[in-house]
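From the methods appendix. Each design record in this collection lists the tokenized structure first, followed by the designed amino acid sequence. Records were kept in a plain field format so they could be parsed without special tools. The example shown here is representative of the layout used throughout.

RECORD:
FOLD TOKENS (604 positions):
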């Protein structure tokens, strides 16, 4: 039972760029408020590391409730709500922020504002949050808090006259931060008498208790045993377990407006209790759900095929299990003439795709061949029908379609001035449309471009990082569909078109990409006993052609018989290399070949 009144509650999150010190500061706040003892924190940290290593995933703190005795003599409850750190999950970030009244904006005083920080600050401002700027790492000799403050004021237009100088590592400024949270973040409004409305900001699947839902009570009261309704999914459940996160789960009997907690109610999959949905009471439902709910929509699609076709059912089981914990993951069976049976999967973005792929391989021990990511194209067919195509091999032929449009993104980059030239060149190569450039303090610049999403989801991020030696940061958001003269480029191996290699490209780039792809495939596909021709074609027109010469020598011949261990090693190496191959007709094609489009040098 918690009996804290709304005036004594403060709900806040921390906005920070990667490595600017969010986790260190969160730990400090937990320690300083006595929520977690130092000894426990060390142990927990180690346990989490162990788990992370074992499961290959990052365990994150979703929320923590702290008790804080403020200088005004009153006891407060401070709820820290975590936000995911990547653009792919910006919808989740926006829901986490919607559950707060304030945010700490943590900026590394030796670095400055980065693009991702900016995106999240704008989200926080949209939700009318009180933002408290914190300049972290002031213990570093290179810290320049004045410059960074100027930068924050200039870029965000945020008053930084009362910014806090802190070092999460050394424990400097922590009391000031806690006091600022109490004094500057507004308390939640006291709507305890209204019908229950609670906002889901996170959830995960637990194999014993079902889905654990993290929520913020916006109005009313929720009790253990209540029958609740989820307003978007329209499903009803009885609450088996209700609690707070301190930061470990601790059961309570009820939670009121303004409080943050978790519940378990034998919910089978996270898709049934989605982030952004509103929890209300079945007996006395609220008239209206909380605003802002949308269903996460996959942006990037790819084919996933088991290298060994007998593994198809195992792949299906694994995807089903992952989906219990990932409402945004979509999949449906796909049959490819080249690859056999597999699944067409949809993801929020490239990082999401990589996480799922990694989990399938690590946790479910599957060997997969994954095709290059594709965005969703909007095609108007000859009979005026509008269809969405997420698989290039399914694009209607030119004489069957009226028009084709592709999604565009606005990309914001922040970079030291010296890399502006090379980043502009990158954007131009990727069909970018220049929108804006602004000079900030100390030779840093913001660059804004509009780019086709297809050009962003390939290797844009990696290219940006390598061209700026790691200094630039970026953020993107979708701005709608635009028509373009796009064509389907087919690739043929040994005379047969390989549907999983088909791609949709701009007409003006088709020749360059076709040639580069043929060359890249020649480089990536191993030699066989026979000559393997490779061709790129648009419709029936071949635009590039290469061939892989036949293998002549036995690889073992080099070993002159004698050295058996060396021979073994060579065979092992070959076996390892073979693992991620897919037989396309009589040709073994390695995984890298399907991702070849990501490896082109970008100058096409
Ligand atoms: N010198 C100094 N180092 C700090 C300070 N705060 C954090 N760090 C260091 O900065 C690095 C990143 O800190 P984290 O707290 O992991 O940063 P984060 O923002 O949570 O990073 P992600 O979890 O990757 O998003 C770590 O090596 C910290 O030890 C500080 O005040 N001073």
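DESIGN:
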């Amino acid at each position: 039972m918690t009996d804290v009144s709304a005036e004594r509650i403060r709900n806040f999150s921390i906005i920070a760029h990667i490595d600017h010190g969010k986790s260190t500061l969160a730990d400090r706040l937990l320690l300083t408020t006595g929520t977690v003892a130092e000894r426990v924190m060390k142990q927990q940290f180690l346990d989490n590391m162990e788990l992370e290593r074992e499961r290959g995933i990052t365990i994150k703190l979703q929320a923590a409730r702290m008790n804080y005795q403020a200088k005004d003599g009153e006891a407060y409850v401070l709820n820290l709500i975590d936000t995911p750190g990547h653009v792919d999950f910006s919808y989740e970030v926006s829901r986490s922020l919607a559950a707060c009244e304030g945010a700490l904006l943590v900026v590394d005083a030796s670095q400055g504002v980065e693009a991702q920080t900016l995106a999240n600050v704008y989200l926080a401002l949209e939700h009318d949050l009180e933002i408290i700027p914190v300049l972290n790492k002031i213990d570093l000799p290179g810290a320049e808090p004045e410059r960074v403050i100027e930068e924050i004021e200039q870029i965000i237009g945020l008053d930084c006259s009362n910014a806090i100088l802190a070092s999460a590592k050394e424990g400097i400024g922590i009391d000031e931060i806690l006091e600022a949270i109490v004094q500057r973040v507004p308390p939640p409004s006291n709507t305890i008498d209204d019908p229950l409305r609670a906002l889901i900001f996170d959830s995960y699947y637990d194999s014993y208790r079902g889905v654990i839902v993290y929520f913020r009570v916006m109005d009313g009261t929720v009790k253990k045993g209540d029958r609740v309704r989820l307003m978007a999914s329209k499903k009803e459940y009885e609450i088996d377990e209700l609690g707070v996160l301190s930061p470990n789960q601790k059961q309570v009997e009820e939670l009121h407006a303004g409080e943050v907690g978790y519940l378990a109610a034998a919910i089978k999959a996270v898709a049934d209790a989605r982030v952004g949905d509103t929890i209300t009471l079945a007996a006395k439902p609220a008239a209206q759900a909380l605003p802002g709910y949308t269903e996460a929509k996959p942006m990037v699609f790819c084919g996933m095929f088991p290298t060994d076709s007998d593994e198809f059912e195992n792949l299906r089981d694994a995807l089903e299990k992952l989906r219990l914990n990932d409402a945004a993951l979509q999949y449906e069976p796909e049959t490819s003439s080249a690859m056999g049976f597999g699944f067409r999967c949809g993801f929020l973005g490239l990082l999401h795709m990589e996480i799922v792929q990694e989990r399938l391989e690590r946790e479910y021990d599957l060997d997969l061949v994954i095709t290059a990511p594709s965005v969703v194209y909007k095609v108007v067919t000859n009979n005026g029908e509008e269809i969405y195509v997420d698989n290039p091999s399914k694009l209607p032929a030119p004489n069957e379609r009226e028009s084709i449009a592709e999604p565009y993104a606005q990309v914001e980059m922040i970079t030291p001035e010296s890399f502006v030239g090379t980043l502009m060149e990158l954007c131009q190569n990727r069909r970018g449309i220049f929108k804006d450039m602004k000079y900030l303090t100390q030779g840093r610049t913001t660059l804004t471009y509009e780019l086709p999403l297809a050009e962003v989801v390939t290797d844009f991020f990696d290219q940006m990082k390598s061209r700026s030696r790691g200094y630039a940061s970026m953020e993107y958001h979708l701005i709608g569909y635009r028509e373009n003269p796009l064509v389907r480029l087919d690739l043929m191996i040994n005379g047969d078109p390989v549907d999983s290699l088909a791609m949709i490209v701009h007409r003006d780039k088709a020749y360059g990409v076709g040639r580069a792809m043929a060359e890249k495939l020649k480089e990536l596909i191993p030699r066989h006993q026979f000559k393997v021709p490779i061709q790129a074609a648009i419709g029936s027109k071949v635009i590039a052609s290469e061939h892989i010469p036949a293998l002549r020598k036995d690889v073992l011949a080099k070993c002159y018989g004698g050295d058996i261990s060396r021979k073994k090693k060579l065979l092992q190496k070959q076996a390892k290399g073979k693992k991620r191959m897919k037989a396309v007709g009589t040709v073994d094609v390695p995984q890298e070949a399907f991702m070849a489009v990501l490896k082109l040098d970008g100058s096409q």
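APPENDIX NOTE: The two ends are 64 Å apart (CA to CA).
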